[in-house]
Amino acid sequence: MSDPVVWVRFLHFAATVSLSGLVIFHAVVGAAALSAGDAATVRPIAGRLARLAWGSLVLAVLTGVAALMVQAASMGERPLSALWSDDLVATVLLDTDFGHVWLVRLALAALLAVALHPPFFSASPAVWRRGVALALAVAYVAALAFAGHAAAGEGTEGVVHEMADVLHLIAAAAWLGALVPLAIVLGAAKDTSSALAVARTATLRFSTLGVVSVGTVLVTGIVNTFELTGSWAALFGTVYGRLLLVKIALFLAMLAIAAVNRMRLTPQLVAGGAAAGPALRQLRVNALTEAVIGALILLIVAMLGTLPPGREDVSAALTATGECRSL
Description:
The chain is mainly α. It has 11 helices and no strands.
């Protein structure tokens, strides 16, 4: 936890998920929801979404630069103060897979900045513009897979792991990254027909997005867990495996909250009546609670990225044991 690399990775993951999730949210949920409201309802919501997007973009770029510097120092086995000697940064950028991925993601961030220029966060952005921004956001978060453990795999198994990681990242961003935007929309809903219409539309569309995202996260998470641990010993007997179990427990907690939202609170909001107001407020609280749990999951992911996968840890231990017995 005291390792600055963990915090740089965490902040970068959080900013990336926030940015990509917000774009996915607006393209799939937000634009349709805002079109159900009047100008007085839509304007403040659009402003808050835009500020969140630009803040996330700036943080993602800054932490991306920090991650590049830390990685370059690690690869060159030099302190950060000596980072610019012998063209180390240029070497990492031009001659390593990490550097190539970093350059691609930087270009995607620049294109996203263009795509998000007003009036993207409105009730009716052009369809082509919404599609371009969605594609860029998906590519931006998915590219993280090519700089992590999955990129180290080889052969068919490596391809399967990499593709599972890509889908896992996209689905996680669509779920986790959309929670704060959903809370913004629900928080702006007042006791007016326009505001309630926006809230109902957003909740119903997010519910569908959530089901697809959670299902994808679950399936790809199982694949990734198998690829990175491969045995019960690696899952329960290594630091990596135990952190993974904590991550799974947090995911199940989010899943339980999501189930309450879908099965009980969403029907109450849609039905209207006296129960709609309390349901709306509880949905917002639940969305923010899920977002906090999601942030904890991202912190664990940042920690996992600095550790050898459980499968490698167990393999190394078995090799060392065999060598000791042969002496």
